[in-house]
Amino acid sequence: MKSRVVGALMLVTRTPVRVSFCGGGTDLAAFYRANESGGLVTSIALQAHIYVTINKRFDDSIRVSYSKTETVDDIEDIQHELVREAMRLTGVTSGIEINTIADIPGKGTGLGSSSAVTVGLLHALHAYAGRKVGPKQLAEEACEIEISVLGQTIGKQDQYAAAFGGLNQISFNSDDTVTVTSLPELDSTELANNFCLVWTGLTRKATPILEQQSRNTSIKMDELLSMRMQAEEVSELLSLGEWKSVGSILNDAWNLKRTLTEGISNPEIDALYSKLMDLGCGGGKLLGAGGGGFILVQTPPGVQEKIQDELTNKVIPLVVDFDGSTIMLDDRDVK
Q1: How far is CA 26 from CA 74, 169, 221, 225, 245, in A?
Q2: For the range 177-185, what are the long-range contacts, defined as Cβ-Cβ under 8 Å and sequence gap of 24 or more?
Q3: 109/102 Cα distance (integer angstroms)
Q4: Which CATH architecture has domain 10-185+322-330?
Q5: Which 8-state DSSP code applies to residue 196?
Q6: Which pTM does this prediction carry?
Q7: What is the DSSP letter of 217?
Q8: Using CA atoms, how far apart are residues 293 and 108, in angstroms rounded to an integer?
Q9: Distance from C-alpha of 31 to C-alpha of 26, rounded to nearest angstrom
Q10: How many other CB atoms are there within 10 angstroms of residue 209's CB atom?
């Protein structure tokens, strides 16, 4: 008699990283809890993804593969803290193999890749356990793991952008709740023609910069309030297709961001930014905490071609992922 395999044999999730136009920094608790109107970020989910695969193992051991490989018998021995805590939260604690694969460098890009990993892990593990969960739960649980359990000094925008996908205004309310408001879908070709990401060639660890920024919140409140207002303004301009004006706001946002703390920029980033403006970009800003990663720039017609001709830096057109974290493959019904 042919035996039946119970449970999923293999699962694959695909989760986008994000590009923040304006408002980054106002998603830190030090700001939104102190401000009655809370924080606000306007961002998109980018068609660059983190993939998480889960396979059922023959025995009860756990194998985790990322930039290194771990094989353990107990989740407490897993060094990859996001994997360990996602397994603990979902109750899937043995007999699996987990692999993570990324379209982009895994750390220090300014695109929120670590939180995309957490969201993708949670999605895969819940599905493996037979549970269907929505983006709100995925984002909340990712924040719980990264901020509450692991004590990371990070904001909440990355988790929500990765889970929901699309172009959104994300509000971080003073009572710790989060509201995601989807903005009208944009013409994908127009967006890709008018904005791109330029790789600085530098990576950095965000935590020290964010910790200092959080400590500086009380003395930088006016700057952060201005950045929150920019998030409101850029939402309307994006909806109207006012690309040149969006570029101008990005430039203003970058100048404000540079004042928040040390380490956000450096001579190499400043030189690249100046070169991009000389090539005709209408404005831009470094993404993420600072110190490296990608620069988002507004590109009038022909400028992206100039960047590719004049610079050796990797260029990625801005293409929106409207799906958010999704299950690409689920073999649970394979007999």
Answers
A1: 38, 12, 10, 8, 22
A2: 178/139, 178/140, 180/135, 180/136, 183/42, 183/235, 183/238, 183/239, 184/239, 185/320, 185/322
A3: 12
A4: 2-Layer Sandwich (3.30)
A5: E
A6: 0.92
A7: G
A8: 6
A9: 6
A10: 20
Q: Dihedral angle at the C-alpha atoms of 230, 236, 241, 242, nearest 10 degrees? A: -50
Tell me which residue has tokens 């353990």.
72
The pLDDT score that the predictor gives to residue 334 is: 44
Instruction: Return d(Cα 81, Cα 146) in angstroms, integer.
Output: 9
Q: 45 - beta bridge partners? A: 18
C-alpha–C-alpha distance, residues 155 and 30, integer Å = 9
How many angstroms separate the CA atoms of 284 and 282, rounded?
7
Which is it for strands 195-199 and 315-317: parallel, antiparallel or unpaired?
A: antiparallel
**In which region does residue 249 sit, left (phi positive, over 0), alpha (psi from -120 to 50) or beta (all else)?**
alpha
**11's tokens:** 């699962």
CB distance 192 to 315 below 8 Å: no
DSSP conformation class of 306 = H
CA pair distance 127, 11, nearest whole angstrom = 8
Q: Which CATH number fits domain 188-317: 3.40.190.10, 3.30.70.890, 3.30.930.10, 3.40.50.2300?
A: 3.30.70.890
Pair of tokens at residue 36? 């009655």
Task: Give, for all 335 residues of the chain, the pLDDT tens digit.
Answer: 333 334 447 899 999 999 999 999 899 998 999 998 999 999 999 999 999 999 999 999 999 999 999 999 999 999 999 999 999 999 999 999 999 999 987 677 889 999 999 999 999 999 999 999 999 999 999 999 999 999 998 899 999 999 999 999 999 999 999 999 999 888 888 999 999 999 998 876 656 655 665 676 666 788 899 999 999 999 999 999 999 999 999 999 999 988 877 778 889 999 999 999 999 999 999 998 778 899 999 999 999 999 999 999 999 999 999 999 999 988 765 43
Q: Which residue has the tokens 């694959």?
A: 12
Domain residue ranges of the chain, discontinuous segments joined by +: 10-185+322-330, 188-317
